[in-house]
Design a protein that fits this description.
about 250 residues; mainly beta; Porin; 1 helix; about 70% strand
Length: about 250
């Protein structure tokens, strides 16, 4: 009987260790994404989207970093019927958010900054700094949900060189659902409300592991500006299938 009890205790201890290792939070994670589409024939196009996301988990800080870009080139005919290569999309976006943990680590103070250069939008550039309150409202084995809200300032220059700097209120949410050991769904959304413009971004992504650190991701992005020049679309969308490599 004693031997059986001892064996049971050892097995239970080993399972707890394994469970702890599976749920252990890594201090730093980073993954790179790359998508490429080339078409020939009646329409010749080349599209490339790439990005790097990273997360850093420290004792007092929880930090997120994002860099992404999009480039598209098309072959068209000019007025004389000659073919020429034309760039139809060229976009760069980078952001960083640091969350300082309070006594309750689910309650944080955040600082955020971002920069966007979209050659074919209404703006030469859009940059943001903001700070405020961040909170994790849901956290278990399958689901996580957090939000951030606070005041900030937007630095904006239009294609005509006009400055549209203004105070803003920034709000964002990040949701993650671990569907299985090899698949996950994520949803991000943010809005920056200002006197001159309200800028909103959202992304829905489904990621499935192919093998080891290599995954495939299907994503749909929305980028909306409330105030744009005549002839410029307020809403940009992007649907992509990409390969993702988990470095750490």
């Amino acid at each position: 009987m004693k031997k059986q009890m001892l064996a049971s205790l050892i097995a239970l201890s080993l399972s707890n260790v394994a469970f702890a290792q599976d749920d252990e939070v890594k201090p730093f994670t980073m993954e790179g994404e790359l998508g490429f589409i080339s078409t020939t024939g009646n329409t010749d196009t080349t599209s490339i989207n790439a990005g790097i996301t990273a997360h850093q988990e420290l004792e007092n800080w929880s930090n997120d970093y994002l860099v992404e870009g999009l480039y598209r080139q098309e072959t068209t005919e000019d007025e004389n019927g000659d073919e020429e290569d034309v760039t139809s999309a060229q976009k760069f976006f980078a952001s960083a958010q640091g969350n300082y943990k309070l006594d309750n680590p689910d309650y944080r103070l955040f600082g955020f900054t971002s920069y966007e250069d979209d050659r074919f939008s209404n703006f030469n550039y859009q940059a943001t700094v903001a700070a405020g309150w961040n909170q994790k409202v849901l956290k278990n084995k399958r689901h996580t949900l957090e939000y951030s809200i606070g005041p900030g300032y937007a630095f904006v220059e239009t294609q005509e060189g006009e400055s549209q700097n203004s105070m803003i209120i920034r709000a964002s949410t990040v949701y993650s659902w671990k569907i299985s050991d090899t698949a996950k769904f994520s949803q991000t959304a943010s809005t920056e409300i200002g006197d001159e413009n309200t800028k909103s971004r959202a992304e829905s992504a489904l990621t499935a592991t192919i093998s080891g650190n290599l995954s495939m991701r299907l994503s749909f992005k929305l980028d909306h500006n409330s105030q744009v020049a005549e002839g410029v679309e307020k809403l940009d969308t992007e649907t992509a299938v990409s390969l993702v490599y988990n470095f750490f």
